[in-house]
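pasting for ref. prot 1 ->
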Amino acid sequence: MIPLTFFLGSVNPQVVWAGRSGYPGLDQINIQIPVGFWNAQASVIVPVGCSVSLLAADSNTGVGSNTVTLPIAAAGGACTQPSFVLDPSVAQALGGQAAVNFGMLSVSQDGNQTTAGGSFYSVPGSALAADAGSGSASAGSCIAVPPAAYQTTGLSAGGSITVTGPAGQQPLASGDYVNYGGMVAATTIPPAGGTFTFASASDQYATVGPFNTAVNYPAPLVWTNQNSIGVINRAQGVQLTWTGGDADGVVAIRGSSFAAPGAQIPSASFMCSVPASTGEFTVPASVLQTLPVGGGTLTVENQSSPQAISAAGLDIGYAFAGAVFTVNTAYN
């Protein structure tokens, strides 16, 4: 009896049937997948990939359901999502292991701070399998992300990691031999970007073997309406605009809110993925209303395509570069 609106990525598919399924206790809703694909010039834009989001919302109140993801390939066959490191098929395969070893390296500009570094850790395979559909979204999609709780164990990459870029080479210090680097000089990243190479040497005490991984820092993105966002009305959605960035890359939009202590839903987050070339995106009200009322953050991030880290002791690893912008906001 509740009128529903569906969101398949950023479009609204038509409901062609809603009612009893013929099985006791089971209702069925059929929706029509529109013809199209993600294209900024297309009048109908349906994202394709391994994590296209589907969400239902109460048409009267706008309150949304949980988010599920569907694999959609425009030409049929297996879906592909080459820009994502943790493809669902990879997550499922690794999910059967007792532990999965991760590695991450990055160079980024966050406001006035420039950072370079990495971290290495192990997570239970069961946690990876459970989280496989909640960590990424196909371009043009948004997903609501519940709080994640699992234990991580640090892995050592030895005592020496360096990063070499247009401004030269510098070591990435570590206090625990698990997390490396931190803030670096602003001149590390030139205005036009460039290539950065992370390297480690052989170390008898390291869990992770030596590696040499290069990543390209794209031309910087500018979040043009950043200063106009302070209070977000969850029932209205929020529009974001930007210029520049990696035209072939994606912009990740992330938001989180934290309710008052003792609230039924203490915290929640969302993540949207958008082709950088579009220059704008509106996070729909159905996604924002999965967050509790309270203070939080909103982040716009333009990343390069992840580059694989090939090293003994790692099941999966990636390096990336990009620009990150974060503002504090209130979700009302």
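and prot 2 ->
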Amino acid sequence: MKRVAFLGVLSVMACASSQAMRAAEGGDSVSLGRAVAEREKRGDLSNGEAASLAKAVADRDLRAAKPPDALALVRDVRTCARELDSALKERMAFHDEAGAEAALARIESGELDLDDVRDWATDADPAWRAVGVRALFRSEDRDARLRAMLDPDPRVRRQAMRAARDDQDPNDTTALLEAARVDPEPIVRTEAVRALVSLTPLPAGELADAFRDLWTKADDGLREDIAIAWASPQVWNAGGSEALYVLVASGHGAGVVEGAAAVLRNENTGGEVVIEAIAQLERAIQQGARERRLQAIAESPLERPELLAAIKKASEDGDLQVRVAATARLAEGKQPGAMEALVALASPASPVAGRARFALASMGDRRTQAWVEQDLAAADAGDRLQAVTTLAAMGVAARGAPVLADGDASVRVRAACTMLIAARRD
């Protein structure tokens, strides 16, 4: 009798699961919502089953999307392109911008061989030309790659920089430095700096000096990239360390915060420059624009007593964004009372509840799970997605499955991606 009852339960579960999958594959959000709600109520929807539903939802939405929605959806799934390769491959059959974006997503996921896209390097459509240019990383491609660095379309220029990073040809130095200096698109300038750091062999000492020249007219974003480049193992011993020493002693801004943190990360650094780096971060934590304060809080090593004291002070700051960031760092460092303070910031009445809950979830604390689940039905799409992300961080991604039935396709596929990425860790 018990065996019959057990088999009956399994039959009901299988039926409910198949109902949900049929609804997911058919794009029937209403039926999917009902089926998922029933499984959630019983508490028997596993993370694995939820990931399967997520894949079906995102796959179906990608295949059904029409321009211009298709382009946005392809961009939404770039982070889980590997799991959705079949749908992205099908989207590539359309020679439009979404198809080209699908091709780039497949390249980055490792599912599309670069040798298969080279012929598009001369395509009339710049979106597809960018795909082909991404494959120009052979030594014999250098002339074509240099021409692509001057293409009228920034998408093509960006992929030319990425191809140069793969080729690592020091003969590209001049062209890359010029792109980093004058290209009108910030992301292209960033890619140029990253490509420069990858060159093999690096021009001894010259690159660090060239970055000094770039620094003068660079915006905050590029300065951060330059500071990271100076701190890289390739450049550190070829003039990068000296450049950072000067920077932390006299500069200010996002790049200097990045540089100061880099100095402290290097175990072989000591003396006056360490004192200057600590002072830079301490000042950034205590005053200035919120963005810089958050950056300094995130990058400051807690083992430095001066910085730990500054972060403790920031955990009582009147700016709640600063307070929650500082409290989260203290909780990560297992400082007494920090976890309890973070739970208080995570309460429903808190303006920074979402950030506090995610911080707790990232540390394996599930005390706020009930509050997070309430946000799955929030009016704001960002709040719904934040809830899914937080539940995934807690290790209970399946509890976010109701958002797979959301009325907004972008919300559905982004939630699905979060669940698919979580499944990689299970």
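Residues 1-16 have pLDDT under 50 and may be disordered.
The chain is about 70% helix and 0% strand.
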